Amino acid sequence: MDEFYARDRRWHPPARHPDYKTSVTRSPNYAAISLDQTVSEITGPVFGHTDIDAIDNDLLSNFTRPGEHPVGERIIVHGRVLDENARPVPNTLVEIWQANASGRYRHKKDSYLGALDPNFGGCGRTMTDDQGYYFFRTVKPGAYPWRNWVNDWRPAHIHVSVFGSGFTQRLITQMYFEGDPLIAKCPIVATIPDPAAVDLLIARLDMNATVPLDSIAYRFDIVLRGRRSTLFENRLEGN
Amino acid sequence: MTGKLPYLKETPSQTAGPYVHIGLAPGAAGFEIYRSELGWDIAGPNAKGERIRVEGIVIDGTGSPVKDVLLEAWQANAAGVYAHPEVAGAVEEGFRGWGRVITDFATGEWGFDTVKPGAAPGRNGQVQAPHINLWIVARGINLGLHTRLYFEDEAEANATDPVLNLIEWERRRATLIAKRTLRDGKPVYRFDIRLQDGDETVFFDI
């Protein structure tokens, strides 16, 4: 079975980053053991359209009372899931979650002053199509304060979870919005060492994908680990 | 002329944060939204093999339980076959081999029901001892942690497992062995995960 490219550990945030305080006690001290991939790592769960419903990718309507809408800037988040070989990752599960327009999460542990919106749940999920394309409708989340340093604010962000075809590709990340001045101040963003890597997490305003008089669009492509094709083997696919 | 290779860079990871439940287990966050949440049934009703429960706790560097963890499990069926299109052999109908579990907000305890996996093929004709692959995310974890759970009662298979044997420090191998007990006649495996300190669980860079 074809293996996935080694993960570039210098590109991802290190486990321990003292400016993100919670990481200090939750980061392994010992080095991870490098493992040659086996069937256990190369395979991963398969999902189908029977697992989810069509409405699940529409946060503007998946938790609303009849005839009502959530408060906030109506946006479309769309893009493709690709691998490091720039090939589309089709039929893979993408899940998102976020705060509402006030910066408040619908979670029993969130007690921020920002109000809950009775018409907004804050989660969605979808499968990429055969070209790796996905989209969600939602509202733009608000910034909110969090207890790290005493006056830290999270930039507006959407959490994104993606599977790919192998368990090694499993990824959770956060999507930010072009032009947000809080990105540069955020200790969680700053766990990523390379500004070029941070740039990959910033969705771009995409006027061509807006729905006039309805919703503004942001483009966010996601790249999962690429797969090595077996060299010197007589195969068309993957070479 | 030298040019840039046409590869893309992987999207960098960010922590799942404290509210991961909203996206991946909204019932636990406190609301119902989906027809069905994914990952609650790992083995399905038709899976052959021994029905087991796996339980544990994730412990941070201060010795305290981590109460906002989400774990995902990925495993083969009792015959050692993964439910994946590139794998030869079939699994039982309804067996996905993947599950999701969250910790109790008060105690940090987590647990899931499944079937005990069989030995799976390893590299170069080797055999891997039965194991469950685990992936751990939480607030304060910047990149999901991969580890493996092996079974105490598989001592013979564990002794020749190529992955366990890759761990240079023999005493650290024990961090990957779940302890077996019986509760009302049902096997329960205990697997505590330590994020730091001398007994730190072995994590893998795969």
Describe the 3D structure.
The complex is a heterodimer of chains A (239) and B (206). Chain A is mainly beta and 239 residues long. Chain A has one domain (9-228): Protocatechuate 3,4-Dioxygenase, subunit A, CATH 2.60.130. Chain A is 5% helix and 25% strand. Chain A contains three helices and twelve strands; from the N terminus they run H-E-H-E-E-E-E-E-E-E-E-H-E-E-E. Chain A has helices at residues 23-26, 39-42, 195-199; strands at residues 33-34, 74-83, 93-98, 123-127, 133-139, 144-146, 152-154, 157-162, 171-177, 202-205, 216-219, 222-224. In chain A, strands 2, 3, 4, 5, 8, 9, 10, 11 and 12 form a nine-stranded mixed β-sheet that branches. In chain A, strands 6-7 form a two-stranded antiparallel sheet. Mean pLDDT of chain A is 95; it is low at 233-239. Chain B is mainly β and 206 residues long. Chain B has a single domain (20-194), classed as Sandwich (Protocatechuate 3,4-Dioxygenase, subunit A). Chain B has four helices and twelve strands, in the order H-H-E-E-E-E-E-E-E-E-H-H-E-E-E-E. Chain B has helices at 20-24, 26-29, 155-159, 170-173; strands spanning 51-59, 70-75, 98-102, 109-115, 120-121, 127-128, 131-137, 145-151, 177-183, 186-190, 193-194, 204-205. The two termini of chain B are 34 Å apart. The mean pLDDT of chain B is 97. Chains A and B meet through helix 1, strand 1, helix 2, strand 3 and strand 9 of A and helix 1, strand 5, strand 7, strand 8 and strand 12 of B. Strand 1 of chain A pairs parallel with strand 12 (204-205) of chain B.
Count of beta strands of chain B: 12
Helix run count of chain B = 4
Name the shape of chain A in a single word: globular
Query: Could you say which structural class the secondary elements and strand pairing of chain A correspond to?
Result: mainly beta
Sheet having the most strands of chain A: 9 strands, mixed
Portion in helices of chain A? under 10%
- Name the structural class of chain B: mainly beta
Question: Class of chain A in CATH?
Answer: Mainly Beta
Radius of gyration of chain B: 18 Å
Poorly predicted sequence stretches spanning 5 or more consecutive residues of chain B:
none
DSSP strand content of chain A: 25-35%
What is the H/E order of chain B?
HHEEEEEEEEHHEEEE
Q: In terms of quaternary structure, what is this?
A: heterodimer
- In the CATH hierarchy, what is the architecture of chain A at level 2? Sandwich
Largest interface: A-B, 85 and 79 residues
Largest sheet of chain B: 9 strands, mixed
- Count up the helices of chain A: 3
Number of self-contained structural domains of chain B = 1
CATH architecture of chain B: Sandwich
Uncertain segments of chain A: 233-239
CATH C-level class of chain B: Mainly Beta
